[in-house]
Amino acid sequence: MKKYMFGLLIICALISCENQKVQLEEPQEAQVYLNPELPTIGIIIFEGVITNEILAPLDVFSKHTAEGEKLFNVVFLSGEQKTYKTEEGLRILPDFTFEETPKLNVLIIASSYEPEKQYTDKKLISFIQSQYDGLDYVASHCAGAFTLGATGLIDDKKVVTYITGGDLLQKEFPQLKVQDDTKVSVAKDGNYFSSNGSLVTYTASLDLLQELTDQGHRKYVEGSLYLDRLSVSN
């Protein structure tokens, strides 16, 4: 009897593990509520995206005001409805596919350590091109500048990319006004923001936040993020 019960427990455990595996491999579509009265910020995700460069804008733009008021809808967008894994291993499910994307006010393009996969992705490039005219602002971080460069939408605009990447960006896209990435961390030209990426994405996101709101709200969000505490140590 004891052997029978032990065997039954093992079978149950195996079935449970198998069910859990199936659930992990079959992500469910995200249920997203968008406030139609708020501007919507779309952040593009893809396999191998750098975590800081999508979480920084999410962190900045999802913060409420001092009065507890929400100011933006912030959503993740992708080419397919599936789970994506960032460079650092974070798994993320998009809110909308490109085909389902709602009206956007801001579009943010991050990068990966293999940017050629993004700037040669015809579906991604086509999506950005289709959205551009309806946007108030667009932002790229790190090698995301290469992706935007490939769209032809930022020709003759000032742009910055990752440190040491400026020469390659200028070679690939000579129509861009590439800034010295050792001296410039965030560049703004009209409605286009670009940055060195990584943690500098926070600075660029705060610059864009100030553009969309005001300096007072920027200072409030900086305080909420404890950015003023980064230099404090024992």
Structure overview:
By secondary structure, the chain is α/β, with parallel strands linked by helices. The chain has eight helices and eleven strands. The strands form three sheets. A seven-stranded mixed β-sheet has the order 5-2-1-6-7-11-10, with helices on both faces. Strands 3-4 form a two-stranded antiparallel ribbon. The chain has a two-stranded parallel sheet with strand order 8-9. α6 links the parallel β8 and β9 (177-178). α7 (200-212) packs antiparallel against α8. Mean pLDDT is 90; it is low at 20-26.
Topology of helices and strands:
Elements lengths: L1 H24 L14 E5 L6 H11 L11 E6 L5 E2 L5 E2 L3 E2 L8 E4 L6 H4 L2 H11 L4 E5 L2 H8 L6 E2 L6 H7 L4 E2 L7 E4 L2 E4 L4 H13 L2 H10 L10
Parallel strand pairs: 1-2, 1-6, 2-5, 6-7, 7-11, 8-9
Antiparallel strand pairs: 3-4, 10-11
Count of extended strands? 11
What is the helix fraction of residues, given as a range? 25-40%
The residue-averaged pLDDT reads 90
**Element order, helices and strands?**
HEHEEEEEHHEHEHEEEHH
Largest sheet: 7 strands, mixed
Shape: globular
C-alpha-based Rg, rounded: 21 Å
Low-pLDDT regions: 20-26
Strand content: 15-25%
Termini distance?
63 Å
Major beta sheet, strand line-up? 5-2-1-6-7-11-10
